[in-house]
Specification:
There is one protein chain. This protein is of the alpha+beta class. The protein has 2 domains: 55 residues, no CATH class; 321 residues, Clavaminate synthase-like (Double-stranded beta-helix, 4-Layer Sandwich). The strands form 5 sheets. A 7-stranded mixed beta sheet has the order 3-4-5-15-7-17-6. The chain has a 3-stranded antiparallel beta sheet with strand order 14-8-16. A 3-stranded antiparallel beta sheet has the order 10-9-13. It is globular, with a radius of gyration of 22 Å. The relative contact order is 0.17. It binds fe (ii) ion (FE2). Fe (ii) ion binds next to loops. The site of fe (ii) ion has 3 residues, from loops. Belongs to the TfdA dioxygenase family. This is TauD/TfdA-like domain-containing protein. InterPro entries: AtsK-like, TauD-like_sf, TauD/TfdA-like. One of its GO terms (molecular function) is metal ion binding.
Length: 411
């Protein structure tokens, strides 16, 4: 089925003479002969499927995959079988679990992590830290626990110049996810490394976006990943192996700080409310298969408590929310629009990151929204791999405090 789907998706692009990105096998062999080291072993001498179609990864990506021993002879990327029905997706997370966040057992001073780093720099007051001089693939467990704590506190942490295989990225994600990462049921992934998904315009359907796409919405705008899951991702790790020379920055905003920007009275209104969240993709309803596809809906606290920092964070994003449970749509829209506006427009609680090839960003998906600046149209490729470490089922502890309350800065 996956094979059929790939062929169906690409069936209009079988003309290798006029297509750079979508190539048949003979074209890939030609391309690799021109641009890749001779030791590469992507393609078998004989193909079991004569019409197999490939997308050719960018050169940096090819080198990374080769170094990691990833075999893409059966195609790149790997497409899992897409679930057909809403009910299939809802069944994917029924084993609710006790999640122990590695950050809860970390040394608060993070001596093992900071002691091994050459430099640690906070990028703004509210969010973002860069660490220089460490390889993520070489961290010991103590350092990983401290990294989790740092990400929980600073919301996003960056590491440039990483030598990181998809497998090592997956392993770090499994550790941070207390044994579980998201194995996405339908998006493009690295072959043979389930759970390492691709952030690559060539497969994410973003070719239609242009400069004239004003204030992108939906998945193109500010969002939090996979909020429809029963226990959505916490630590999320994007490694960019190929980036344009200029453009394609990613921005994050702090949910701790967005919450702190609300008046004490408004915070009291929000505390204890539940949001209704939706999946990025629609699916058919098994009870009414001919109806238009619909999204999976899941209820979570609108303000959630972070299990490591114990801070309250607003858990809202414009792209993947339906409303607030129990409110009329107009009431819900009024409240959510204000939350989104504060969260998205307050530049003092945001960080903007300029990528270089081989950079990792690990963010806390529970307490942030993020978006990309799509300003690189036609000016270079952008390919990354993402691992989403699953976290706890979101909860709200009425005894928890905001970050500024905890720090005695409430005003
Ligand atoms: Fe995302």
């Amino acid at each position: 089925m996956a094979q059929n789907r790939r062929q169906k998706k690409l069936s209009g692009s079988m003309r290798c003479s006029d297509c750079v990105l979508l190539l048949c096998k003979s074209s890939v062999q030609e391309y690799l002969a021109r641009s890749a080291p001779s030791s590469l072993h992507y393609l078998p001498a004989m193909s079991p499927v004569a019409t197999e179609v490939f997308k050719t990864p960018p050169a940096n990506t090819l080198r990374r995959l080769e170094k990691a021993g990833i075999d893409i002879s059966q195609g790149y990327p790997y497409w899992p079988n897409k679930p057909e029905f809403v009910q299939d997706v809802e069944k994917l997370q029924t084993n609710l679990r006790e999640y122990v966040d590695p950050g809860t057992r970390a040394d608060p001073e993070k001596k093992a992590l900071f002691g091994a780093a050459k430099k640690v720099t906070d990028l703004s007051i509210h969010i973002g830290t860069e660490i220089v001089g460490l390889q993520l693939s070489e961290l010991n467990d103590k350092q990983k626990d401290e990294l989790a704590l740092l990400v929980a506190e600073r919301s996003v942490v960056f590491f440039r110049d990483q030598e990181l295989s998809p497998q090592a990225q997956r392993d770090l994600g499994v550790y941070l996810g207390d044994g579980e990462i998201e194995i996405h049921p339908q998006v493009a992934q690295v072959p043979s490394v389930p759970g390492v998904t691709l952030i690559w315009g060539e497969v994410n359907g973003r070719q239609a976006r242009t400069f004239r796409t004003a204030y992108p919405s939906g998945n193109y705008g500010w969002h939090t990943d996979l909020v429809h899951l029963a226990y959505p991702p916490g630590y999320t790790h994007l490694h960019q192996d190929t980036v344009p020379e200029n453009g394609g920055d990613t921005l994050w905003a702090s949910g701790y700080s967005a919450y702190d920007k609300f008046s004490p009275t408004f915070r009291k209104i929000l505390d204890g409310l539940n949001g209704i969240y939706k999946s990025a993709h629609p699916y058919k309803d098994v009870n009414d298969p001919s109806a238009p596809p619909r999204h999976v809906h899941t209820v979570h606290p609108l303000v959630r408590t972070h299990p490591v920092t114990k801070f309250k964070t607003v858990f809202a994003n414009r792209a993947l929310m339906v409303g607030i449970e129990g409110l009329d749509q107009a009431e819900s829209d009024a409240i959510l629009n204000h939350i989104h506006d504060v969260y998205e427009r307050s530049t003092d609680i945001q960080v903007r990151w300029k990528w270089t090839p081989g950079t990792s960003a690990i963010w806390d998906n529970r307490s942030t929204i993020h978006t990309v600046s799509f300003d690189y149209e036609g000016k270079g490729e952008r390919h990354g791999t993402r691992v989403s470490s699953l976290a706890e089922t979101p909860f709200f502890d009425p005894e928890s405090k905001s970050r500024r309350e905890t720090l005695g800065l409430d005003d």
